[in-house]
Amino acid sequence: MTDCMDMVQDQNGSQLLRILVVDDTDSMRILVKEFFRRNKDVLIGEAEDEEGAFLQMKEFSPDVVLMDISLAGISGVDVTRQIKSSFPGVRVYLFSAYNADEYNNIKMESVCDGFIQKTNLKSELQQMIKTELGHKNNVPDNG
Q1: CA nearest to 137, candidates 16, 3, 1
Q2: Structural domains in the chain, sorted by start
Q3: What beta strand segments (E) does 56-108 contain?
Q4: What is the DSSP letter of 14?
Q5: In order along the chain (143 residues), what is the average pLDDT of each group of 10 residues?
Q6: Is the C-alpha dihedral spanning 47, 48, 52, 58 positive or negative?
Q7: For the chain, what is the radius of gyration of the CA atoms?
Q8: pTM for the full model?
Q9: Contact, 129 vs 56, CB < 8 A?
Q10: Alpha-carbon distance 43 to 39, whole Å?
Q11: What are phi and psi of 45, to 5 degrees?
Q12: Do residues 71 and 22 touch, judged by C-beta distance below 8 A?
């Protein structure tokens, strides 16, 4: 049986990129959602904690998770490990206000797919969208 979310397409028939934003700060989730709402190729889900993230993983079936590195009560790195273990096809980007140089080992340690600095949020999110839309729509031509 096909999940109805897998069928979501834009008017041109391209599949939309589903992004789940996980951050315990309301203002950051709002900022990220507003940025993505400007892009007609993207659908947004959100969660503020580990429990909400796993609920959204099941219900929203995101292609990409944007995970705050430091959630209330738990490390976003730990949640990323759990998500990658339970949903191996999903791509996870950690994001933080801290310098990426301080977290060079996180990519290998947590098996995340990228790191986004909140201080460069707009440009890094634009690059992530470009990368992920290319990844999602890189399907062999059947025609």
Answers
A1: 16
A2: 15-135 (3.40.50.2300)
A3: 64-68, 70-71, 74-75, 91-96
A4: P
A5: 40 77 96 87 95 97 94 91 94 83 61 85 90 71 39
A6: positive
A7: 15
A8: 0.82
A9: no
A10: 9
A11: -120, 165
A12: yes
